[in-house]
Amino acid sequence: MLDLKKIKDEFKLKLGKKLNLSEINQIKSDLFGKNGHITLEFKNIGKIAEAERKNFASELNLVKGELQNLINIKVREIENIEINEKLEKEKIDITLPERNFIRGKIHPVSQTIDEISSIFSEIGFSVAEGPDVENEYNNFTALNTPDNHPARDMHDTFYLDPKKEKLLRTHTSPVQIRTMLNDKPPFKIIAPGRTYRSDSDQTHTPMFHQVEGLHIDTDINMGHLKGCLNYFIKEFFEVKNIKMRFRPSHFPFTEPSAEVDIGYEIKNGKIVIGEGDKWLEILGCGMVHPNVLKNVKVNPDKFQGYAFGIGIDRLAMLKYGIKDLRAFFECDYRWLNHFGFDPLDVPTNYRGLSR
Amino acid sequence: MKITYDWLKDHLQTKNSENQLLQKLTDIGLEVEGVESSTSDLDEFIVAKILKVEKHPNADRLKVCEVNIGKNDLIKVVCGAPNANKGLLTIYAPPGSIIPKNKMKLEVTKIRGVTSYGMLCSESELNLSNESDGIVELNQNKYQNKIGKKYFTKSKSNLIDLSITPNRPDCLGVRGIARDLATAGFGKLKNIEFGKINHKGSQKIGVKILKEKNHGCSIFGSCLITNVKNTKSPKWLIDKLISVGQKPISAIVDITNYVMIDLNRPLHAYDADKIQKGIVVRNSKKGEKFQALDNKEYKLEEGACVITDSEGILGLGGIIGGTRSSTELNTVNVFLESAYFDPRSIRKTSKQLNIDTDAKFRFERGIDPLSVEKGLKVAAKLIKEICGGEISKIDIQKTEKFKLKNIKFELELLEKTLGFKISIKEITKILENLGFKVKKNRNFLDLQVPSWRPDIEQPIDIVEELIRIYGYGKIKKIDPIKTRDKSTLNETQKMFHFLQRSVASKGFQEAITWSFTDSDTNNLFKNDKKNIEILNPISSELNVLRNSIFSNLITYLNKNLDRGIKDISLFEIGPVFFGINPGDQETVLGALRSGKVSRMSWIEKERDIDIFDIKRDVIQTLVEAGNNRSDFFIDDKVPNYYHPGKAGRIFLTKEKNKVAAYFGEIHPSILKKKDIKTEALVGFEIFLNNLEFQKKSLKDKKDVYKASDYQKSERDFAFIINKNFRSQDLIELVYNIDKELIKNVDIFDVYEGDNIPDNKKSIALNVTIQSMSKTLKESDLEKINKLIIETVEKETGAIIRS
After folding, report:
1. Can you point out the beta strands (E) in B233-377?
2. Which of chain B's ends, N or C, has fewer CB atoms near its CB within 10 Å?
3. pTM surpassing 0.90?
4. ipTM of this complex > 0.90?
């Protein structure tokens, strides 16, 4: 019994000192090796008197357990230190630049078209398309703008043939004609796309983007038109309130016709939509002229509805604070990167149009 | 249309403010484009006299003038006008003043080394006329004593610029605008008393309208005013004209302009003594010449409506008069014309000759045919009042009788279009105030349209009139219902949006460039397509529709290189054209990459961008779009703008139906021609119209899910094979040896050079073998190994490398 306590105290003392791994291994073998102290004690169990044997064995196991535990702790301690020393040596400058990852950007006009499509999708409009090259009939005549009509002056048209029968569409309105000629009412479409006018200055580019809207059914009136545009403008500018004004105007293909202004003010040099007492014209609209419906074989006594045309580039400029229209088409890499949108940033209804 | 509130008040009894006026004009569809304050800005323009003129020491065309502006010291002004001569009385603008035409604020500036204090003005700069050839020449007698005084007498009323839509010719006269305002409750339209005219004698100059095909004149009214003394207009008239930006000329001309602006009734005054043997209104003959009041000679096409006498053309009816018969200060007898010219004819002729005048602008929109006589009377009476003389009887020649339009207006249409009702009382009041004659019936109105409203043709036009006056603001909005019966996008549109974002996510910036391009660049990319020329391009650099998506993209890529940006990835998705007809276009996604990968990177090795970068981009995009990589077939037949040895085309299936995409290095000769300086330039094109859309149902879009849990084995093989043998075919061959067991074939090394014979290469394959039904034994694997080696050697002539 004395031996056991002596062994325990002696080795506890040894293990209390600072040790390296080989010293520990020495201690391990001194205790538990073939001729180790503990091993020998176990061999001695048989020699011990029957009455004391049980006690001795239990005591021995306790001492064994305690010392083993101490050794394990010591080993872990040393391993930790060694690992830490190794890791310390591996330390690098994590402020060095990361590997390059380049994601491209979506052009603001494309993003705006997707936003518009998303908004109108929610109220049941489908997206229609038409060709960039149009014939004179679809672009003008069918839209109640006969030859020699002064309204044609407002469109500086690019022509492709001397007879002036083929042209680059001056607006997206011919998509109305194509849609109605190819299908039967009701119609509920928007048609975003490229449009062309021979005009180039600070605020005009020879190519620009419009979105056409058309809703024809048996009972669609100007109240629906107003409601639809009010909804669109509110959603698009992502503001709670919008001041909107309908102003009488004239387009040959709608009657009555209106231009729509939205209220804005300038705050800290930036335009704020929906507040203030200044007005900004943003689109033209009206009830589709009966002559247009007749031209596309839709009975104006049975069907009626509205149409509108919005300048997409201008909307994008207003929403995203882009000052120069011409920059849209100059493809300056820095500009594209600055005003472009992450391709993962897809405008949706459930998530919201923009981040 | 430029008006002033003062002028409006000639016709309108109102106490409203100018701001209320501006609001109301806009509310009823007469959009206010701008308001110019005509007072303070013009105060600074001073009558001045040039006392000394010297040649500018450093510029041949310039002069240095010493000018008396009514102060003790003379002012030095540099001037380029040819008529800046000693002794000239003209108008001087001091530094700080704002030039009306271009709104430029003048500053003291050095012009070629000589300091100029202010400026001498031309009429055009002061918006007095279009005369810009020289500086203003003021009448010596009149202005001799006014040196140093303000040139412009103060006008009280601001200039209001209205944008009148082309359907409203009646509002090209002040009275028409007043009528609309009064109808909308903005004051009361004044009834203008018109005194009696004492006509003396008949109109002695014979007038005849030739009834030809498409003749452009249906009414020609005229009268003579004899023994007049043409003079400068009285102050009220001069002020009036100046207040709306018109330049006063002489009483007779000013009166015709006044009547035109006031009543929208264009007139023309001839010197009656210059008309030879009566007037014939007829169609022009091809090649006829005519000297117009704008000092230009016009050579006419056939069919223009001309006013002629026995010696030839006096004027282009409704467009512009001629110099031969114009009135002058010494004119004694005046022949006054008031006619109705056909809008289509006016438009055709003025477009042919490219003439724009106030009269033309009005006639092409449609003048009130019943205003012919009234216009003559008002003008003749004014001429008599100002210039004296006697007025003859009025002569009116007509080729057809004008009929007033009648419209049956069902009241139901109003509610159907607007969504609400307007009371019959209100409707009647609005229409009557606008000049309609209204007869009430049970459910409809019989309406007679006023002669000054050519735009009103059918019931829907009446709806617009009513709501325009009643107020667009009163239309109640009906909120849209959130339902969707049809899908928003079709398959092609979905693909468009998907590809756009797929390519952008691979590092490409989306560009939008013109659909037209420069033909020289286009020629580099058009391959076998034809140039599609634009008849009236905006510039010679944008003269054809693009045949390729690259024509503009490469130019803009180069511009970015010029900006010092080196590693560029740009793409555009949009139309390219192959014909002149609508629909001769296809949608293409084109992408270009230039420069290096990992340029100046501390961690990666930098290298030039290459064809396998762009191949990854295009293949991955096509795969993301729902196509199966293992179905692709790729060969090397490409258009001539690609490097012939480093480019390919991709078919989505082995059937090789339509080319889905091209990819590769851009031909070096194009880089040379476009002077593009970059380490490497690669690109791809995806042809959206050639992609086939999966029409499978959703659950069939993906194959049935199968995965094996049995052990898989990998085996490596290296073959020495003909250099020209395409790796795609080798992979295909190996796959087909056992479609059940061979799950994957990868190339992990390609080697040519030492130890490999000329014309040969070594290709190393890694083949994954796995069974769906059991763990393969070593003997099974040996068998398939052997089969792979045998088949490849046999089919391709390759030799396995030991």
Report:
1. 268-271, 279-283, 289-291, 297-299, 305-309, 312-316, 320-321, 334-341
2. C
3. no
4. no
